[in-house]
# Entry
Amino acid sequence: MPMTDRQPAFILVRPQMGENIGAAARAMLNFGLSHMRLVDPRDGWPNPRAVAMASGAAGRVLDHAGVFSALPEATADCGFVFATTARGRDLTKPVMTPERAMEHTRALMATGQKVAVLFGPERAGLQNEDVARANALISVPVNPDFPSLNLAQAVLLCAYEWRRQIDATPPEVLALAGTEHAVAGDVARLADHYEERLQAAGFFFPDHKAPAMKLTLRNLWSRMPLTRADVQTLHGVLRQLVRRQDG
# Structure
């Protein structure tokens, strides 16, 4: 998992618990990120609790994590730095949502800049001295009465937005479960079948309303997102009802 210039570096500043470092690694890899850097981890490095929490493949993120004694060293090669924060800092800086920040990150990296995102220690977050080194802030629009996020949660939100910027997954799909969409001919034959049987049963009454009733049913069938399996089932239902009636 070599370092590349195609994704931002997520920098955990003075992280305290190995479990949270491991959880952050998992969150990063969930969304295709692998550039983790650690600044002065409280319990030293490597940390067996981080490895245990990373759970398998995400351990590779930890294996390649850069470890630095101070923040200036960790950001020395970065052209733009974001700092995540849940509170105001009385500093004049752009404040972005994770969505906007990752969009801006993509634009910056397209010009060849390296980008870093700072995440503070679990107890109190980044210090003002850390934030002052950043070019912009990332603030998650959380409940103002309870704005605290776990370190791994903050990492996951930013990683998700990064992935969403490059992912082409449609917002909604229909899982067809081994079948396929019914074609117009299938739907037309189904409509004919029901219209024929309903006509025989005297459903279209009185006669002067029959055309409008048939039109309504045709529109109903065409409006439904039917699969071939649905069409076959509905044919079978009608056949069974007619069979029982005739019997």
